[in-house]
Amino acid sequence: MSLEAFFLPTSAGQRFCTLHRPAAGQPCLGAVLLAQPFAEEMNKSRRALAALGRGLAAQGYASLLIDLHGCGDSEGDFGAASWDGWVDDLLAAHAWLRDHVSPTIWLFGLRTGCLLARAAAAQLAQPTQLLFWQPVLSGKQFLQQFFRLQSAAALLGKHDKVGASELRTALAAGQTVEIAGYRLSPALHAGLEAAELAPPPQGGRLLWVQIQNRADAALPPAAQTCLDSWRSAGFMVKATSLPGPAFWQTVEISDCPELVESSLALLQGREVTA
């Protein structure tokens, strides 16, 4: 396995990327483009995503993690980022992978990264292959939860008492607002709020891994309904659930090794065991 770090030039600035490759001499079975989750969830998830990159490389897959506009070591300010700009970043990374690594590319998403991956897939002119971890089904519902962080901080005396309605009013007036230490622009808010995990028009394959509290827990009804809509749209769908920590929101940095193994099993068409 090898690890490379580089800046990818885009029309909107340099984007920092980390690329895991299989070991020298090992055939490359394909590439996986990793779409990151939102705000602090990304910081909590870097360890798990690095473990996924290593696991993929050991099994013959390259993987690329791109820091989106205003995130990580990429250029730009988070408060100036837009949803469309983030989708463009993913498409630029997808083109680079196609030209330099492999024509066979999976789009991976974690949490809101699934919405980004879906949006990028909708702009590709061929069937797409997607791998989702703990998908967010609705950007609007996610933002409602994100706004609650501001209300919670206000109750603790860490911020002014500004409610969700005031935040939405400011955004509608074209103002950037700050929530939980992150500046949210109207363009990013509008794009994320409109995002839904609907199947792209081209069809393809979808692999879905859900973390639950119990090993025997069934997928949530909302997830089942979403999966049915993808099947109805012509996607080949496989889904599984497994017990593990919600590492994207835990206080201490944690990961879930079983999540990587389950994902590799799905990619390779093997039986998934919890």
Automatic annotation (TrEMBL):
Query: Would you say which domain of life the source belongs to?
Result: Bacteria
Q: Which Pfam families match?
A: Peptidase_S15 (PF02129)
Q: Which residues form the Xaa-Pro dipeptidyl-peptidase-like domain?
A: 19-100
Q: Which GO terms describe its molecular function?
A: hydrolase activity
Keywords, in A-Z order: Hydrolase
Q: Which SUPFAM superfamilies match?
A: alpha/beta-Hydrolases
InterPro entries named in the record: AB_hydrolase_fold, Hydrolase-2_PEP, Xaa-Pro-like_dom
| Alphabetical list of NCBIfam families matching this protein | hydr2_PEP
* Name of the protein in its database record: Exosortase A system-associated hydrolase 2
Task: State the organism named in the record.
Answer: Chitinimonas taiwanensis DSM 18899
